[in-house]
């Protein structure tokens, strides 16, 4: 698959989910608006996986077109699909409780996709060392939030409001995740962690060096405290945390 819709003369990205754009920023903003609208339609927000069809706001054919015309790395695509045929594209929950793109394979396994990294109509097609480190560190401690959820199935409502469990509760860091990471790097060398990362066996993801994995997992386990919040409370708390970190 190769990028063939990008017009160097007009700098327009054509047929992005049915619309044309002059900049990647505007194209991505429109794409994300379709993701949000799809998530907010009916009871979709309660589903862990939203299957994209021709009836959803973000259509399956929209995403097929993006990958046919704007995919940067065809080799990556082959490794990611493991030689299987894609049944359909989906939206799944990301680390922040938001939605990200993914696809379902023939064996019904689901793989996530970083749209900005692999679709040139949205991003530069490369990750900075900071982005790679963030992704690698998130991956290493994800199991801890899953374990917390499994141990707290008895919780019946949001910690901050009366919203019931049935509306969907999300695992939240009481102490912001970024605060824990920043604290970790006051006693460990961030640059050393960046330099020692490597790709896992299939070459799809960046991973921490083995000894760094153990150090980080243990630190996060000791310092992270979790709680279950409803979608709105989690969204509000995350927005406030990001606002403070940008100041």
Descriptive notes:
- There is one protein chain.
- This protein is of the alpha+beta class.
- Helices cover 43% and strands 19% of the residues.
- The chain folds into two domains: 6-118, Nuclear Transport Factor 2, Chain: A; 129-246, no CATH class.
- The strands form four sheets. The protein has a four-stranded antiparallel sheet with strand order 4-5-6-7.
- Strand 9 (198-199) and strand 10 (206-207) form a beta hairpin.
- Helix 5 crosses helix 8.
- The longest helix is centred in the middle third of the chain and has 23 residues, at 129-151.
- The radius of gyration is 19 Å and the shape is globular.
How would the blueprint of this fold be written?
Blueprint: E1 6-7, E2 12-16, E3 19-21, H1 24-40, E4 49-51, H2 60-70, H3 74-81, E5 86-93, E6 99-105, E7 110-113, H4 115-118, H5 129-151, E8 169-173, H6 177-184, H7 190-195, E9 198-199, E10 206-207, H8 210-223, E11 226-230, H9 231-246
Helix pairs in contact: 5-8
Short description:
This protein has helices spanning 24-40, 60-70, 74-81, 115-118, 129-151, 177-184, 190-195, 210-223, 231-246, and strands spanning 6-7, 12-16, 19-21, 49-51, 86-93, 99-105, 110-113, 169-173, 198-199, 206-207, 226-230. By secondary structure, it is an alpha+beta fold.
List low-pLDDT spans. 1-9
> What structural category do the secondary elements indicate?
alpha+beta
Helix fraction, binned, reads 40-55%
Order of helices and strands: EEEHEHHEEEHHEHHEEHEH
What general outline do the C-alpha atoms trace?
A: globular
The major β-sheet equals:
4 strands, antiparallel
Sheet with most strands: strand arrangement: 4-5-6-7
Q: What's the total count of β strands? A: 11
Count of individual domains = 2
Tell me the strand percentage band.
Answer: 15-25%
Number of helical runs?
A: 9
Oligomer: single chain
């Amino acid at each position: 698959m190769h990028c063939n819709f990008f017009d160097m003369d007009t700098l327009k990205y054509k047929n992005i989910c049915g619309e044309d754009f002059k900049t990647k920023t505007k194209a991505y903003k429109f794409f994300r608006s379709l993701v949000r609208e799809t998530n907010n339609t009916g009871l979709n927000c309660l589903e862990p996986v939203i299957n994209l069809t021709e009836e959803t706001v973000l259509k399956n054919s929209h995403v097929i077109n993006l990958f046919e015309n704007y995919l940067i790395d065809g080799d990556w695509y082959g490794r990611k699909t493991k030689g299987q045929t894609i049944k359909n594209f989906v939206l799944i929950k990301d680390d922040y409780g938001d939605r990200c793109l993914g696809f379902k394979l023939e064996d019904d396994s689901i793989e996530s996709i970083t749209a900005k990294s692999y679709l040139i109509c949205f991003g530069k097609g490369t990750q900075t060392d900071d982005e790679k480190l963030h992704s690698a560190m998130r991956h290493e401690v994800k199991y801890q939030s899953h374990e917390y959820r499994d141990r707290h199935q008895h919780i019946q409502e949001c910690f901050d409001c009366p919203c019931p469990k049935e509306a969907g509760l999300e695992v939240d860091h009481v102490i912001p995740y970024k605060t824990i990471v920043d604290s970790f790097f006051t006693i460990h060398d961030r640059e050393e962690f960046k330099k020692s990362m490597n790709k896992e066996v299939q070459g799809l993801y960046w991973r921490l060096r083995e000894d760094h994995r153990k150090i980080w997992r243990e630190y996060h386990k000791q310092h992270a405290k979790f709680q279950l919040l409803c979608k709105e409370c989690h969204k509000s708390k995350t927005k406030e945390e990001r606002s403070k970190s940008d100041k």
